Amino acid sequence: MRIDPDYPHQDRAISEINDAAREFFTQWMVEQVADDPALAEKVVPDYVCLGKRTLQDNGSWLAALMRPNVDLVTDPILRIEPTGIVTENPHGSGDESAQPAGESALESERESLAEFDLIIYASGFHANKYLWPMEITGRDGAVLSEQWGDEPTAYLGITVPNFPNMFCLYGPGTNLAHGGSLIFHSECQIRYVMGALDALISGEYRSIECRSDVCEEYTQRTQAELRTMVWSHPSISHSWFRNPSGDIFILSPWRLVDYWNWTKEPNLSEFLLQP
């Protein structure tokens, strides 16, 4: 998962073992769709192996794409018309034959219309919008959604400056794309939160709040580590891991054993404690 800067074939892989994995998976996929070279060109990724979330497929997905009543269209969608979807036609041979009477014609020959009775609009989800659409207000009127914007950050993915007594489970930067259990991750977070609450109660404090400099240092360290990982490789032009600016704030680059060690108990010197 880590980029080897000395590997000479960065255009296709991040390391020797990553290149071997790419060759293995590519060969398997091409063998499944050997009778349709055009489909093979569409389904074989053009980015480094494991750079995006990997589809776990036993062959049924590729088999479905091979059915005679199925077409995989990867041309950009321009708009949705009353009768179907208009896509960009890079070959410039627009198809107006399906255009129903009374409807506006295709705007150019570089458009194609495919008619549908039903459209399932599966456009994904807001991966960067944590705790959304809740509106959470912290100290001095700080609004969590405004403080985060497109760059949600939290110390250890758990606690946020300006928001005393607030803790997150499965918060920013805790998604695991390199293996491991989110249940284990959540258990680490719960242990950490319980330690903070115990300190709050036993010390008779009114509030406990992560220091902003502590959170910022952790964020910078995490971002530096993420830049060495496969998800940040330049061959990946877009993915749901990235925010609109192309940066990654939802994934953890850390080893599970390190995260476990960091969350065994809170270091109270990293917090502002209000008596």
UniProtKB/TrEMBL annotation:
Residues 85-106 are annotated as: Disordered. Gene3D superfamilies: FAD/NAD(P)-binding domain. InterPro entries: FAD-bind_Monooxygenase_sf, FAD/NAD-bd_sf. This is Unannotated protein. It comes from freshwater metagenome. The lineage of its organism: unclassified sequences, metagenomes, ecological metagenomes.
